[in-house]
Amino acid sequence: MGTWFTEKQTDHFGITAKVNRSLHSEKTDFQDLEILETEEWGNMLVLDDMVMTTERDEFVYHEMLAHVPLFTHPSPKKVLVVGGGDGGVIREVLKHSSVEKAVLVEIDGKVIEYSKKYLPTIAGALDDERVEVKVTDGFMHIAKSEREYDVIMVDSTEPVGPAVSLFSRGFYEGISKALKEDGIFVAQTDNPWFKADLMKQVHADVKETFPITKVYTANIPTYPSGLWTFTMGSNIYHPLQVSDERFFEIDTKYYTEEIHKACFALPKFVKDLTKE
Amino acid sequence: MGTWFTEKQTDHFGITAKVNRSLHSEKTDFQDLEILETEEWGNMLVLDDMVMTTERDEFVYHEMLAHVPLFTHPSPKKVLVVGGGDGGVIREVLKHSSVEKAVLVEIDGKVIEYSKKYLPTIAGALDDERVEVKVTDGFMHIAKSEREYDVIMVDSTEPVGPAVSLFSRGFYEGISKALKEDGIFVAQTDNPWFKADLMKQVHADVKETFPITKVYTANIPTYPSGLWTFTMGSNIYHPLQVSDERFFEIDTKYYTEEIHKACFALPKFVKDLTKE
């Protein structure tokens, strides 16, 4: 049978993947980091026993976190990614020629280091000249920023360990201040099957801060339940009122203009979580 | 740790669920049948080691297989479900008051028997007076039917064991003949992550038979990859040209009018499978 890695996504359910070998394993200052070579998904980044990204299905998460807000904003120039040390979101951000500067603020330098080594198709973009990488605390970086960014994307782990502060109302208020007045915020907000309460709380908190708050979904096979949600907060621009001319051809495997419009249609039980 | 049931969805990947106890287990004339009481998903029907349905997430599959074609047809009166012995699709079909008769053709009577016993919220509808249950081969039933049904739904297992013949071009031709001239056909057609070739072949075959062929998706956590596809074949009615007045309030947990329109937007790598 060989070795299998099992992620318990809840106390009673999980996924399991055949592992050819462990490429790296260490306890960093912030979390347990492991890179596994799996048969089904290619190389896989695991933090605190949770799958963060895999070579095979990473495109879904990274494209959907980046392109939905970037196509909603009419001309994103300065973009901040909080977390996301694997570089996948930055790679997608750079596909927008309007972007002059993309700042990555990742708390754990080891994630960057080992993603560059073992996930080069994902992390390669971090060496681009438009990218500035800061190894520091995202919450603190946000607190010091004022009217600086067009789009802020929060690519965090789940709210355990170093990411706890990234799921707080104070954080969303900080983001609102760090954004330009017409800025857009987006965060990954887990799944409605196992984390309904979290999703509901985040939605309520973001809604307190941003006049336009919308949830969208994408299918990510290696994430819990496969149905992932993203929550967007915007002051002015509505993601479903994007002019047709705004969309341009882009090299993607998941995102399309049609998906942009469709991903906001929520299954009824998910939509119910966004109502007071 | 207790007992866990693991479904190997591919040779190198699977899901695993904590089992409180096995409620029933037998080798029927057609397949291995097991009903497990799980902690996360409630009672679970397993055929040939594959999860068929669970009490907790069954609504997604059953609603999406039934309501998308039923709301596309202006007035479905006679409906055939091939397979689906658990009764979930029939339950959804009966929510349409236009339906006068719903025929279920299931090859394995044991699936019906034990679904009624252990999945009563799913199978209870099979006792409705509008329902006729036939324990016989779906392929043969289709071959004997002519211009009889408004909608035919194929709720089969994957194309192994008794379901092999339900994924053949001859079967789709038989369905076309069994449908009234303005009839609609829909089948579950597996997932694009692990069964891309199957999906592609089915789409090409259905397209040979029906002028309007469309693929739509839904998220089903306990099915491989979580991204499930359905392929619809129609002679006249287009699922995206349904008059707004056609939609009526219906008691669902996943399907909505918005989802009906959005579920046909395919991720780019899935859409590519539907091109020649």
From TrEMBL, chains A, B:
Gene3D superfamilies: Spermidine synthase, tetramerisation domain (2.30.140.10), Vaccinia Virus protein VP39 (3.40.50.150). Catalyzes the irreversible transfer of a propylamine group from the amino donor S-adenosylmethioninamine (decarboxy-AdoMet) to putrescine (1,4-diaminobutane) to yield spermidine. The keyword Transferase applies. Keywords: Cytoplasm, Polyamine biosynthesis, Spermidine biosynthesis, Transferase. Belongs to the spermidine/spermine synthase family. GO terms for molecular function: spermidine synthase activity. InterPro entries: PABS (IPR030374), PABS_CS (IPR030373), SAM-dependent_MTases_sf (IPR029063), Spermi_synthase (IPR001045), Spermidine_synt_N (IPR035246), Spermidine_synt_N_sf (IPR037163). One of its GO terms (cellular component) is cytosol. It holds the Pfam family Spermine_synth. The active site is at 155 (proton acceptor). Spermidine binds at residues 62, 86, 155-158. S-methyl-5'-thioadenosine binds at residues 31, 106, 137-138, 162. It catalyses: S-adenosyl 3-(methylsulfanyl)propylamine + putrescine = S-methyl-5'-thioadenosine + spermidine + H(+). The keyword Nucleotide-binding does not apply. Homodimer or homotetramer. Its EC number is 2.5.1.16. This is Polyamine aminopropyltransferase. Residues 2-235 form the PABS domain. GO terms for biological process: spermidine biosynthetic process. It comes from the Bacteria. Pathway: Amine and polyamine biosynthesis; spermidine biosynthesis; spermidine from putrescine: step 1/1.
